[in-house]
Amino acid sequence: MIKRNMTTVGEFILLGLTNKQDLQILLFIVFLICYIVSLFGNILIIWISSINPRLNTPMYFFLRNLSFLDIWYTSSIIPNMLKNFLSVKKSISFIACFTQMFIHLSLGGAECYLLLTMAYDRYVAICSPLLYTKIMHPVRCIKLAILSWAGGLTNSIFQIVYTLQLPFCGPNVINHFICEEPILLDLACRDTSLNKTLIFICAIPVAVVPFFIILVTYIYIISSIMKISTSGGRRKAFSTCASHVIVVNLFYGTIFSMYLRPGATHVANQDKMATLFYSVITPMLNPLIYTLRNKDVKEALKETTRKKNVL
Questions:
Q1: Cβ-count burial of 297 within 10 angstroms (0-12 exposed, 13-18 middle, 19+ buried)?
Q2: What is the pTM of this model?
Q3: Residue-wise burial string across 21-51, b where 16 or more C-beta atoms lie within 10 A, e elsewhere
Q4: What is the pLDDT of residues 149-207, one digit of tens each?
Q5: What domains sit in the chain, N to C, each tagged with a CATH number?
């Protein structure tokens, strides 16, 4: 093993999405628009589902949690990206780097569990409709949301503690636009095989198990829907699940490509695209998916607009 200067790294240099200077302003504008759309869309979901009685259901309670999570998810990443697009030295302090990674891991894990909880909600609604209000009562919904947030937080604390034990003494250049754990481990001055194994192991309860439970849940959901006698009833049942299915595919597909590959197979540009998709693009698309494909949300928006026009 090559010995490095054991001076502790005080900051990291983020190479960003590209080193082409002529693209920096264009990327700044594109991601500023993405950030504004993401904030506006998620705040709109929280607002409209909070003030409209027809959306006062467990499904929209979990959707508000997801939107709140996505606001902080993008806010932990995009502002620093925007700053770096306009900066000559694209640096981030050691503390800020690990803080960003902590938030990123916490919210990513929480989203995995929230998507699982939302799948469970749809399962109860379609497979046991007569027991829905009894099973998904407000206290249980709050407990499920708390468990989702706590699961993401626990995973993040566990991984951050082990990563902070590594010595970082140079180089300090990260070929990425955020401080993401699999990439950061390559800069440690010690063998990180154990840490990389831990990432893979942690991904199983946080991402793999929830994803497969969601798959099994939807097998039961589809089976129940197919037993509905009328085509209109089947369409209505499918429509309540369609948005969630799209979001699950978008989020988990890119999460798996980042955290369930052996470390040696990581390719910088592929990693950047995967992270960009699940941490920036998906949170921006979630409100659009849920509003454009959801009849209840569209009706609530129209109703709220009509009331404002009358006033």
A1: buried
A2: 0.88
A3: eeebeebbeebeebbebbbebbeebbebbee
A4: 999 999 999 999 989 988 988 788 988 889 988 888 888 888 888 888 888 888 899 99
A5: 11-310 (1.20.1070.10)
